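RETRY 2/3 - previous attempt timed out on the joint model. Re-submitting the same 406-residue input unchanged.
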Amino acid sequence: MATVIATVPYHHGDLHEALSAEAFEQVRAKGGDAVSLRAVAQSVGVSASAAYHHFPDKTALMQEVGHRGSLELDRRTLLAADAVRGRGRRAATERLRACGAAYIGFAQDEPHLFRHTFGPDCAGSALPGEKTKDSASYRTLGRCLDDLDRLGLLGAPRAGLDLMIWSAVHGFASLLIEGIVPAEATGPLMATMVSVLVRPPTR
Amino acid sequence: MATVIATVPYHHGDLHEALSAEAFEQVRAKGGDAVSLRAVAQSVGVSASAAYHHFPDKTALMQEVGHRGSLELDRRTLLAADAVRGRGRRAATERLRACGAAYIGFAQDEPHLFRHTFGPDCAGSALPGEKTKDSASYRTLGRCLDDLDRLGLLGAPRAGLDLMIWSAVHGFASLLIEGIVPAEATGPLMATMVSVLVRPPTR
DNA sequence: TGTACATCAGTGAACGCGCGTTCACTGATGTAC
DNA sequence: TGTACATCAGTGAACGCGCGTTCACTGATGTAC
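RETRY 2/3 succeeded.
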């Protein structure tokens, strides 16, 4: 019977990824302000200075966390929208509602991540080659509006609605996680949005 | 001719107020995260420990800053709404637009203050006897909607519109100050809001 | 196949910093007699 | 009117802390010959 001695290898393998993932997890759990580069390095089992071989400074690491956060938000909204099948009025309406609810749900489930992702340390400076403006979650909301538009259900001109609904959903999510607005208001808010945007059925 | 020796009095007069005002100013200029109790005390010309005769801890001081911030926001929105005179369709519509624009303008002019006021250090815990929910700026927006409603101009049921418009304005302001959405979009956003909420003139 | 060597990814000690908060203290104030 | 004294609002030194970042270094890796 051979004795196997598990050895921690001197070279990590993919320390960049490991640091980024650990930082993400710590931001998720404690919030961006409470995360230090030292703590992240320690959790990964590496000296703090090792991080400087992979990131120019702490800011860069934190920005990558923000990027991961927005990917997660994108994933959730897309998933919610795709889960609603059908091409009719009912489906298109429900899709918009579900997409908005998913956005808000992300903030509710992961408030630290949400704050960090849209906070001053991340938001302004998107990752190279990306403008946050055309984030996937924004585009997903837009596609829900397209569906409604195609069915002739929008009560107002299509242009500008993207931004309005994104603003409303984002603002509500922000107010919600700070306790300024109650979680129970989420359903009613999305209902109001729909009732304002979607023309009532002609019968 | 008498020589007047200006003496800094040992007792300050109103150190609570002075600290609060100085903290407000520093948050305004540098952002909440960059403000330390020590720096505030020093600016006022007092030892850091003196602050503890007036505030239980730093958090309490910062919360008071947040309160001042929301008062300023209230002041601006109210001022903007009141500046629009008249009782007709035109005035009511313009009043809503102006009120929303003032909210956004506050964020734009004082991003640090805006972030701090609605940030996790302040928002949740309102000052005793106050629920942030019925903040004056929220109520001012609501009164603009009331005006429109009274004229029969709302295209959707009145209930819920307050929250929707507040969310939209707040969300847009948040996205704006993080550079995610351009300042030029402010006008179009408010135009979209109006076009969505206000029934077109029957002619 | 074996060896010298350049390269890269780690280490750990140190620098320099500012922070919130506590503590024993002292100077000023105003009130009771 | 004068004085003793309790009260309150200051002081400044110290505690204990964790932080981001730099630096000279060393261990592992892989490639050229």
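The longest helix of chain A spans residues 58-82. Closing ticket.
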